[in-house]
């Protein structure tokens, strides 16, 4: 007797329940399900899914904004009959607030609080969720702007250092604007202070134990940043003849700390090489370091896949921000080499074989940084340092003797660097250990020493890769040092650099048919934009509705097959996938540095009506979002300035070929790229394998394999690799104040209208 081959997919559920779960994971909405059931004629199931007579579609969102700006809270609902609105602040009705949009212009400090909207439809009513409004009293200087509430958090109030006496009250304040409203957590000497989750920190009757370095962690559901760290000095006081004497303040004060006048970081990851083996780890490494450095209050621009001219122009923009006392950090991951003590970074359009004329010399960049009288120069080079036998040039670069230079090489001289190879998304070996130490409040050379120790304990690379540190740093400078702006700050260039992270505002588009869609944006890197569309309102008689984007500039070379996908991963969005809104269509726009004009595209709405026999109907809208992110800096120009170019003493060879990111890789071995004198294109591929086994600490009788593929050096005989992934970047999200919702609604004594 044959056994039945039918199996229930999950023990605790039925095939129908499992099917619903799979549909949900694929982004299927309730509306889609109802359309399918309507087609099948399943009236009983349709009745179960039939919405109530009153439904709130758009909930008000919590927001933090500055006094004098405009406040707008929105609550939109639909019902069987016309709906009516009434807004409340706490338990009190807001006068003349009968619109779905509550607008207070301008908003004042007294308008801060909790708001809720009651929606009436006939004999029924519903309350929206609560929205908290935090109003910050900030006096802005000329040129400052904090109006973008749906993009990144913007820090507008920094805590100030204080020197107070024992027994007095310590008051610190910070603040950020944004939507959703930020969360706060104060820290003293790197340790979180319990029950300090508000913008203002108040400690009455302070003791000497309260002395230390304070800063606040500000976060949302998708983002985290830190305020400056400030010193709080607590002095003992002595009563002599009824008069307080604090003559020994100098003995009680804590040591003076070093400051940066600003912090600027340029991160470049080259992986999609046109004439050389492609890499995987640079994308993940740049992404992770970008998030960490932003927590240390660095102005960070993270870029992928740059040609020679784009790299030179990006370095020029980086140099413009440097001045006396600035901490400058340059991280590079990609192919590279070292000849006669000079390190060279290889652009994605470098020929095969490449020479110094096709690459950027790191020591040339350092020479220019020294001329800016920077406070700290940090170079983190995640590349191979093998000698390039095709390049006999020896640039004569004379560097000044300064005590503020730190080089962190991912590998030793004349050695290769490695990246971990697996089916998932992983860091290179260097960043795998660096990211665990980067936020530690210690001298940068001490941090790198500990990273070197960690790498030395890694079985997979013992005897193959070791971190090398070169430093002339005489002071105890750390990446965690606070920022104290100096007189020489170039505000114009700082604002220009900050624009490289400004996202276009999300927008709501209404079409003639009555459908509404949300068009949202997110940044994966400074030159990678994510666009997503979401249906927020569909006419009742429309059986199907979908919005997609199309008609992008030819400068971007967007592949139509990877646009408007139902999951972020399908379009190559691996790092942001967990942070993006669900049930949308996603499009990833890379290489924004190639954009010459404003980004104009078309949003196309496709719908079918039951009364029209489900024949598709199309509506379109043209959208112009200007130059988003790094496109504002016009890195595509061939020769804007000659600073980096002249110092390198090499001819300029810009490329006009667009770059593409490769797909995910599934190798499970070590690709050992041997350096050969012959031309790469004239030889047949060869692979050298080495299995590496690393013991999994704590595993019972088991081990796991974390395979390596050698990378970041001059390539020879390897097939292209793929991409890798990790965490998140700012996306707008809602803050649902669940705890207050029940208490406040229960306390409202309202009459039905």
Automatic annotation (TrEMBL):
InterPro entries: Caspase-like_dom_sf, Caspase-related_regulators, DEATH-like_dom_sf, Ig-like_dom, Ig-like_dom_sf, Ig-like_fold, Ig_sub, Ig_sub2. Residues 51-128, 153-233 form the Ig-like domain. Residues 261-339 form the Caspase family p20 domain. SUPFAM superfamilies: Caspase-like, DEATH domain, Immunoglobulin. One of its GO terms (molecular function) is cysteine-type endopeptidase activity. This is MALT paracaspase 1. GO terms for biological process: proteolysis. PANTHER family: MUCOSA ASSOCIATED LYMPHOID TISSUE LYMPHOMA TRANSLOCATION PROTEIN 1/PARACASPASE, MUCOSA-ASSOCIATED LYMPHOID TISSUE LYMPHOMA TRANSLOCATION PROTEIN 1. It holds the Pfam family Peptidase_C14.
